[in-house]
Amino acid sequence: MGILEVFSYFLNPQFILIVFFGALTGLMVGAIPGLSVTMATALLVSVTYTWQTSNALAMIMGVYVVGVFSGAISAILINIPGAPASVVTTLDGYPLAKQGRAYTALKYATVYSFVGSIFSFILLWAMARPISAIALKFTPMDYFLLALFGLTTVGSLTAKSFAKGLISATVGLAVSMIGMDSVMGTPRLTLGISDLKSGVAIVPVLVGLFGMAEVLTVIAEGGVDGQILKIEKEVIKMKDILKHVFKSLYYCTLGTLIGALPGAGGPVASFIAYSQATKLEKNPSVPFGEGAVEGIVASESANNAVIGGALIPLLTLAIPGDAVTAIILSVFYVHGLQPGPMFIKTNPAMFSAILAGGLLACIFLLFLGLVVAPRISKLIAVPKKILLPIVVVLCVIGSFAGNNRMFDVLLMIVFGVIGFFMRRYGYSIASMTLAIVLGGMMDANFRRAVSLAASEDDKLMALFGRPISLILLVLTVITIAMNIPAVKKMLQKIKRA
Amino acid sequence: MMKRGLAFLLCVILVVGITACQNGKGNSAAGYPKKEITMIIPYGAGGTTDVTGRQLAAALEKQLGQSIVIVNQKGASGSVGTKTALDANPDGYTILYTADSLGTQRVMGISEYSYDDFTPIMAVVNDPKVIVVNKDSKYNTLEDLINDMKARPGKVKMSYTGPGGSGHVQALIYNQLGLDMALTAYTSGSECITAVLGNQVDFTNSNYSTVTGYLESGDLKLLGISAKNRIEKYPDVPTIVDVIPESEKHLSMPFTPLSIVVDKDCPEEVKTTLRKAALEAVKDPKWQEFVKNNNLDELYKQYPEIEDIQKFYKDWQSLVCWLLWDAGAAKNDPASFNISRPE
Amino acid sequence: MKENVFRQEGVKKELIQCLLFSGAGIGLMIYSLYYHGNAGIEWVMSPYLFPLLISIFLILLAVGLLAEVHHLAKAESTKKGATNAQISPKIEWKKLSITLSMIIIYYFAMPMIGFLISGFLFLVGMFWLLGERRIWLIALLAVGTPLILYGVFHELLHVMLP
Predict the structure, then answer these.
(1) How confident is the model at residue A114 (pLDDT cuts 50, 70, 90)?
(2) Does residue B188 have a pLDDT over 80?
(3) Does residue B162 share a domain with residue B133?
(4) Chain B residues 28-57 within an 8 A CB cutoff of chain A
(5) B58 pLDDT more than 80
(6) The domain containing residue A63 runs over which residues?
(7) ipTM
(8) Is any Cβ of chain A less than 8 angstroms from the Cβ of C143?
(9) Residue C150 with chain B: CB contacts under 8 Å
(10) Are residues B195 and B221 in the same domain?
């Protein structure tokens, strides 16, 4: 997989065209509320069935890279994230847009999504094996601690009432418990509704909480007569944007590593990166949650860095790092490839195709984001009374298409209503989403860890006696402790002394 | 400007609308199938069920002359997809490609569906279950593992996919042979493999086709086959029957059968046409190659007639459901579903 | 003084929320304990462990919310001209309920009369409700949107739309 092989794809016009086509598709899928990258990739499996494998991969990489980025577009413009990974971008992106500075938000999102993707692809190319070796060392206990650590970041997501933010998260945890428990197979909280047995899928919930709720809120508050927002033309200097590059590299590393952990993906990475940003930035340009570009930097770098990261275990161990890579795995099978540890050695051409597709997609991302997105955002000038009903129909399709079930649409509607009330009474939707994503991971892994330790003689050692576990444990405890108001006050006193 | 945009939009709508309507017309051949068929795979994209289903569909399409559209509907051990297949019109245009869980759903309390709601078209393939360990594992032969399990009951760790899964059934069979291990559940077969790779457990019981890559690269060692016959590619690897002869009565049937079934209320014409087409489809060279590469057992050779298939399901359900119930893993008594004990 | 605080409009709503969450927490706790009792597994491995922990946490938080509200309300009642800052702008309940009913009808109608027709009806209804009166535009979008979506999803991507 030398440089030459990868670049040979760059000279193939058909390949380039297909990546571009994928990129465009990704742009639209991510930007349209209700449609998500995961859904699009799943549907692409059938579509690309008869294509040549390298072309199928080209298309998918295009959709994946640009799709993750363009989730930020709808997140910024209409407060509806295009995918779970873009939820955090709404926190600062939308306020910026409301202030008329959507251009700024979009530009930052574009540039840093680009940085994130390229960074992760470089790591994929150079350090795939070492990274996957590290990822393998994560035991269920480590996953549990990671999820717990992720949850402690809830504090940074709630601007107003801390208790309300935690309540949202707790309710989210309860929601994540619905369905058949993955460890014992017992149905939980299904209340006799058989459709709930498979749990609550994240996409309908997301679409409902953000999309449908937003529609309901706007209609209820009577704002249908205006346009969604006005966009002012701005000149933003690249210099200013690039000021954040170093911090961004930190977020990218987080993103790639978390992506490399099977089962943890975009949402986890972007939430953790955002919370790290709130700690690292002593003086953000604007307070977080009111339009701080530093928040967008963190979120977008991390969620695009997940892409290369998730591909690492996929290509070195045939274990997908996130939902989209799970689908890419099936594309391999469908085309007769045998993924596994030998994949890179026996299929260097495919590996190069993936890298080439990814890199090309990054370039298209930059192009589309800088040139096309601002023009598309003018589309938002469509009057709300026309846009909103169409958004509803899109939400319906988006929820349905994931698993071909009407029930998911019902879920979406229910969560839309829930989201509406949450907004009205000041409960953070982002916290709930985070909790839903992390809840299952926490519960199942905790019990797995216990189950593994049960047959050991020294239980405590078995549970915690590993470097990774200890580090995570210490980090989590410190973070929780720092968030308690009493401790905060104490620290402030110490600082002053 | 607006007018031009509108005109363009109208044209697009017309074109799309017309193409959408074409689908109803289909081919002129009388009888079934007149339009495309939907094959529901009640598992996610990428698993063994999905991959073999798609391969078979490709070969089947050629025989039927209509395209087969694959729809993945995962969830609740396959019961979500099963429900959809049963809710659809029994006109033969929705077929189900099911895995073994259909036989255990009632006993495990997951749903009320079973093979009895369907008529089998063909038992397709079986993926042999094999025992694998990490490449640095202290076990080098199947005997090492078995002896260790006998010496330290409840201490040797195995990963499996949860109660009712094929891995669990295997574990219960081993228990019957006097082998006691510590089980930890993971969400999927590939996670079980990860657990072995990461040295969290000592061994696992996987489908052969999922581990071929790791065996080749040397990351996993193949210790034994959980079936009666050895695998062509690894003739030196013993089967459990080789090491524990009494196990033969437990391991004599395929454990992960994948089959094509249709709603039992479908018209006879549909069933016969599908059967004929399926039997022809498996002669397709691409399919044959696929089967060979993945060392799948061709169940249609073992169970050629529908009565054979139905008896196979019955025997399978007897063996597995009672095994689960006796071990305390099942929620509902198999007797309540008229499942008789294995002979 | 304490009575005054709790009588304020905004505070009443917060109180209801606290009660709601405490109720949910208690409900969840009962649920977990009951099912766990039936299952007979040790606590550490039980699927009901986390639900129980969550319920405890929820109850604690509801109490915490109560305290927070009390604290805030006290602070505000000492300020002159305290307003109910927590309540968001006026809500057009009529429009909202009609919208919601239409969405629900849409949901039920879809499997019965198909995606295209139900989508068309829904869009026409919604456009009208929200004040759009240009009939040609309504017709165009209400027909075009479902058709285009159908074309893309059903034909291209083989999603089983009703």
Answers:
(1) very high
(2) no
(3) yes
(4) 44-47, 50-51, 54
(5) yes
(6) 3-496
(7) 0.83
(8) no
(9) 16, 20
(10) yes
